[in-house]
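Components:
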Amino acid sequence: MSIELLEKEQELLSEIGKRLDQIKASYAGVVPEKVDIGRLTQEMGERAHELHMSLKNRGIDPKHHAYMIKNRELEPDHEEFYMHVHPVEDLLAFIDDPHANDDPVDQTVGHEFTFTVFSRRWGHDDTYTLARTDMGWDVKFTHSGPCDKGGRPFLYSNFNNDMVEYPAGLEGHLEWLWDRASDQGLSHDAVQSALVELANWVKATTESAPRGSVWEGY
Amino acid sequence: MQSAAYIAPAMSDGVVTFLDVLGWRGVYDRNPNATVQLSVLVDGLRKQGEKQRGKVQGDVIMKSISDTIAIFTHCDLKEATKAIDIHGELAAWTIRKSIEAEIPVRGAIAFGGFAIQDNIFIGKAVDEAAAWHEYADWIGVHLTPSAEFVFDGTHGGANWVQYTPPNKSAMPWHPRCVNWTRNWSDRSEEIDRIKSKFRNLGPIVPEIASKLLNTINFIESTAPMANGEGNSIDGN
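Structure:
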């Protein structure tokens, strides 16, 4: 839900938006004539600072990404902070959605998850434990130990030992999931649910492997 | 035919990086996960690019076509060193991750005019980056002459090491090369890890051996100096 602006703030927003569009179009080379980027940036920055302070004085402190504050080497209240396209874009995003600049927090390092697959060797389901670590996963089963984000080496040494067939893309998907959990701060349930999808994919691969007749004993 | 309102993008200055996966042809035999791994790499690189926002006015724009990743940042001469530094940081991240994923990259960073329209990019900086990015016989990234000429060494340093990129026809120059090993704490352990990754790229036939050995030579020659400044080393 966007922030309701006062009349003066709406005017500022409109003036900022016009200048931001001109600057961005100029950088992208899609304006017919050269514009005075320096002047536009100055005008945009002054108005953005005024809007920021107006919001702050009403108890609404515009939030910025931690990397933005680090990269600008200024605090958001500083009058120079908005003399730049990117923090202004983020101010507009904040007004549109006060959570737009929230930095995701990795919530699941140290959490344990289950991963149930079908073992052709033993003819039943086996449930592995995958604990998410700083570097990847800690696999707990017959072959236990720290693995990379893709589950190497122990997830696969268990699979090979217990005749669990798995899809070639599993490693990439596991790594993708690990990165998403970190970058987007996925909840425990979201990670577990994604792991169930992957485990079901492994099960389907194992169950669809050819068996009987010529394959007997493979 | 385009409508009258259509405005073609004009050339403006900036930094262009081209990165290319080594040995992509036939990669499906060696690494069935290569496409997923490249997607993960490009996705991660986009996120790294996001985290650079606020340093220079232009956006960090990523394009990927097959095994080539192109990075663009519009900037004027005043911001050139900062923008080149950003590309250096992104290239360093990509090299480390690409080796980890066993799809190692090499590339080049140029400065000059360019224009982008969707997935079409043109300009001198594009031509220069494209011409140089597969020139060196290694895993690594270096500046091309245009970027080297505008880079202000008094403001950039730690991301770079001056080195002659190995190739069959060595040129008499020592461009800045991305010092992608500079954050290593235990260098000998990291080198062992890299060698183990290289073994997985095998068989190490003569055509690829030189690239890997040149990379090891670069790594072993680039131990960080105590003051954190870039080194100057002759690779030939």
